[in-house]
Amino acid sequence: MSAVRISVAACAVRGMSGASALIHPFRARKSVHSRPALVARRRSLVPDQVGRVGLFSNAREAASGREPPLLLLHGIHPGANAHELHPLFEAFREERRVYAPDLPGFGSSERAARDYTPELYVRAIESLIEHAAQNAGRPIDVVALGLTCEYVAQAVAHSPERVRSLVMISPTGFAVKREQGLFERAARRGKSLWPIALAERLGVSPVLFRLLVSKPALRIALRRDTRAPLSKELLRQRFTTTHQPGAEHAVLALLTGALVPPGNPQSVYTRVHCPTLILHANGARPGFGSLESFVKWREHLAAEQIEDASLQHAAGAAEIEGRLRAFWLRLPDHDVEHARPYGSAATPESAATSS
Questions:
Q1: Residues 43-58: pLDDT tens digits?
Q2: pTM for this one?
Q3: Residues 5 and 42 in one domain
């Protein structure tokens, strides 16, 4: 909060023009030039009550394929967009149709000043699943990251006939109480931490956003996700996407806890009955203390621990790709004759983003 006090004091010294620049950071300066998150055709979907959703796809270039379409869903955090799924998009684009959207409030999707809620993201994901499944005329495979897994679980529970399998990478909701941070504990109760609530009342929440999306803060967040060296390309992507007009709205909603579904998330996961794989990294935060007991009595669920779940680097991306291939090979309706076997997973060089 000292940074907030300093910023507010600076406004008083500079006058109203300085205050306007501080409280409305994108009104006072031009946005950073942004490149597409993926090298792929991008189109827009406009689902009811969701707004415009940017969707990257190889649907035109991919063969009709014997494998079902693959929907890749990024996490929810400052700097989130479809780019974080780049290694998996490239790994599977020659084999099947792959879809990778920017979820509402992020990337190339609509970033309007509106209410961002879990229900908004569930509706968006339901529409994306429907789009991919209807185009192919068959159920699809879904891969999701982080907090998005909670939204996906609700969407899959609503339309189980459209999803063949689900892979959740570092899903939220499996931390026991001692592993939960103050933010998650408050958000699950539908409350904000007091510094965030105070910033809202003072009208200086955008100040917190500017601090959160500075290069030092983004660099710290990336290093927290992996023990591997920092991906400079991913840092560049996160910085540019958070410095576009409207980028603050969804992130500020996340800061207040509005995007974390209240209550016990495992009550939602229990409604998913398709084959499901959960991948999580050793020592990841906030933790997975309740995962083993959750999976134990559910035959359609499998949980595997991996070295690095961040997809930032070649080795971690290649390991995740291999786990996905092995999981899909075990599915009853998998086309073994035309599938690439587990041992032929893409090389680290082809699986990684540029660093």
A1: 999 998 899 999 999 9
A2: 0.83
A3: no
